[in-house]
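Support request from a user on the community tier.

User writes: "When I paste my structure tokens into the form, the page sometimes reloads and wipes my input. The last time it worked, I copied everything first. Here is what I submitted, just in case something in the input itself triggers the reload:"
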């Protein structure tokens, strides 16, 4: 009994010296994109979604940011799952139970986030989809790769079957391309009204969340695959692999972006070609996230002069949960009617500027916090609820038991 308790206490997260700078860079970079996209979502929902907007800033955000950074964050969740489980397996009797407890706590944090802050929560979705990963931890890389290919193929086939089905229906020609979607919690004049409205909005969003969870799970598996293939271990010795990843993701990203552009140029009467290009464009989130991640890897490995600049992202990356919740609080207070209500008058350039300004504030806050503490406040709460009382003796774990992803990238 005492031995099991001791193993449980030793199952602590990777120490500061075992962290991988590159993954923190990617996580911090993804957080910047999430802030930009979320703030534009809040503003657009307040003003009404204008699908025909010709504003350059709005178009750039929609093309190069929307959907891609949340997908990248999902990839990192899969990476984090493998790191967590690899360490827990060595130190606890029931690592899956430990991870399940971690997910339940994340789900509860997400519920609190929805109730008191903002309906656009991703934590609850991550927690729900995360349980599926438990069935894949012990699988071989080849098995996981087969699942990835199968899931991507099913996405394509489902879209193609739907396209054929619509083409066979005469009534489908009169169906609108877009549907009206409003968030009543974003238009509530008082905070108390928004509490009730948020859950009404969440009910609508949850009812149509299958594709969201499906895409998240797919990216979780891709993240797991990268760890199982040791792509993040001694990255400088795997430059040829990362080159191939970058070139493949670049080509795929260009293809999906061209499909998006061509879809806007095709006559609305040619519904077959429009839907065909739309099917390709739907993979833009996956290809974009992989292109951004691999581009950061190339810069990190091949341009040493930029490493110091890229390290700015690590502060927010190490406190991603805290910063995610803070960006929601700041954004809703500044933009929604029960706060300062800037969303009704702010321009796209102003929304972008506000997003970057909030990110800078988060970088400063995270930098100051990490000078005094090892982890962020929400990360500390999540850790303590997951692992229980911290055992200081865990710092003396022999280094042979610890498998950092890259000794050259540690703090």
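"...and here is what came back when it finally went through:"
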């Amino acid at each position: 009994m005492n031995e099991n308790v001791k193993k449980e206490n030793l199952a602590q997260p990777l120490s500061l010296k075992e962290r991988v700078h590159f993954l923190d860079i990617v996580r911090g970079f993804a957080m910047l994109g999430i802030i930009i996209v979320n703030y534009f979502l809040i503003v657009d929902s307040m003003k009404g979604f204008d699908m025909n907007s010709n504003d350059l800033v709005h178009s750039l955000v929609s093309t190069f940011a929307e959907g891609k950074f949340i997908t990248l964050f999902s990839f990192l969740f899969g990476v984090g799952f493998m790191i967590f489980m690899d360490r827990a397996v060595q130190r606890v009797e029931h690592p899956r139970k430990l991870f399940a407890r971690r997910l339940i706590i994340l789900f509860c944090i997400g519920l609190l986030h929805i109730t008191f802050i903002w309906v656009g929560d991703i934590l609850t979705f991550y927690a729900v989809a995360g349980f599926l990963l438990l069935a894949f931890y012990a699988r071989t890389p080849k098995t996981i790769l087969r699942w990835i290919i199968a899931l991507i193929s099913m996405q394509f086939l489902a879209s193609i079957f739907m396209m054929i089905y619509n083409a066979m229906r005469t009534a489908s020609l009169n169906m609108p391309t877009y549907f009206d979607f409003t968030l009543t919690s974003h238009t509530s004049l008082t905070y108390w009204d928004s509490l009730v409205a948020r859950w009404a909005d969440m009910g609508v969003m949850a009812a149509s969340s299958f594709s969201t969870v499906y895409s998240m799970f797919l990216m979780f598996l891709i993240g797991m695959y990268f760890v199982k293939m040791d792509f993040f271990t001694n990255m400088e010795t795997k430059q040829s692999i990362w080159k191939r990843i970058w070139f493949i993701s670049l080509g795929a990203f260009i293809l999906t972006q061209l499909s998006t552009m061509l879809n806007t140029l095709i006559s609305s009467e040619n519904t077959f070609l429009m839907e065909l290009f739309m099917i390709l464009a739907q993979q833009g989130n996956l290809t974009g996230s992989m292109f951004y991640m691999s581009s950061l890897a190339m810069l990190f490995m091949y341009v040493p002069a930029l490493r110091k600049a890229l390290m700015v992202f690590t502060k927010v990356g190490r406190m991603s949960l805290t910063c995610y919740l803070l960006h929601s609080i700041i954004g809703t207070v500044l933009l929604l009617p029960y706060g300062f209500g800037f969303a009704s008058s702010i321009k796209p350039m102003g929304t972008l500027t506000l997003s970057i300004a909030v990110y800078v504030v988060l970088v400063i806050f995270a930098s100051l916090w990490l000078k005094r503490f090892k982890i962020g406040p929400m990360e500390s709460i999540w850790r303590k609820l997951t692992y229980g009382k911290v055992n200081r003796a865990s710092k003396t774990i022999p280094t042979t038991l610890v498998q950092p992803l890259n000794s050259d990238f540690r703090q």
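Agent notes: The reload is a front-end session timeout and is unrelated to the input. Residues 141-168 form the longest helix (28 residues). Confidence is low (pLDDT under 50) at residues 5-19, 170-180, 390-411. Escalated to web team.
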